[in-house]
Amino acid sequence: ANDEKNLEWKCCSKCHHGWCCSAAHWEIYKTKHHTEEVCHKYQKLSTLQLFHYRHMRKYQETFSNSPDSSLSRPLQKFPNDWDGYFRLRFPETYGNPRLPPEFFPATTHLGSQVVTCLWAMYRLGIERFQDQEPLVLQIVGASHYEVPPSCIWEEILHCLPHVRTLVLHFIGPDIAKILKDPTMEATPMECCPDCQGQGRRRIVGLYGETYHEFAKKYYMSSLSEEKPTNNHLLDPPTMILAFNTGMHEEDEESWRTSLEV
Questions:
Q1: Using CA atoms, how far apart are residues 81 and 127, in angstroms rounded to an integer?
Q2: Which residue of 18, 52, 110, 148 is surrounded by the most CB atoms within 10 Å?
Q3: Is pLDDT at 228 greater than 60 in this prediction?
Q4: pTM, whole model, 2 decimals?
Q5: What pLDDT does residue 221 have?
Q6: What is the pLDDT of residues 89-113, one digit of tens each?
């Protein structure tokens, strides 16, 4: 304990990262690892985190920015990077000097999952998804990053205008730790005026359990007399997604059982 008190902690004065226990160790670390490029990345990260913090403190909600208009038809090719996506979906505001420089980078925090999902559909062949009714997505291993789900998922309806019903099932045991009621069977959510006018629907379900428990309860129960009352629970998934699951780091046996389903 006394040794800890005598330590003279030192970090980069620009980005405030790269903490070392002494000025001598800092000089060694700085020369080998804390390059100008690394420092610049840390600075950008810090300002982005500060932007999210200030937004949450002011508005009591996570920052979210999503397009509010629909495409007239699916794209022939989905953008390969954020710059291409922003230019396509935010043509009037992207690059606006009046917006803070963190505005669009902050958009990727929640938008990355939806955009990744759309990109994957195009990679697999968008013709398999663009006319699917309903379009059922199961997000497995959902945690605090996905829950509670925001309206940004409606961007899938905006980019696939022929889809009338988007069903999103968020499944994962961590949901039970996040929400007081860990189960919300498929429930219609409010859509933007454009989607409402086109008769499109976004339906969301939350299930605080593993995927194999979810499958056993809802899909296997359809073979018995006790069937779920909500038909969307029995719709086969169009796509199953998992983001940053850590399946090879923890709960390996549980994940192995779910993957076998």
A1: 21
A2: 110
A3: no
A4: 0.80
A5: 56
A6: 999 999 899 999 899 999 998 899 9
Structure token digits, residue 242: 């998992």
* Residue type present at position 203: I
**CB neighbour class for 129 (10 Å; exposed up to 12, middle 13-18, buried from 19):** buried
- The token duo for 26 is 């800092």
Which residue stretches of 125-167 are H helix?
Answer: 155-159
Residue matched to tokens 């950008």: 44
Q: What is the dihedral of CA 79, 82, 88, 92, to 10 degrees?
A: -170
How far is the C-alpha of 161 from the C-alpha of 200, rounded, in Å?
9
Tokens coding 82: 């954020």
Partnered with residue 52 across adjacent β-strands are none
Question: In this structure, what DSSP letter does residue 128 have?
Answer: G
145 token code pair:
């990053």
Of the two residues 221 and 1, the one the predictor is more confident about is 221
Cα dist. 129→238, 239, 255 in Å? 8, 9, 27
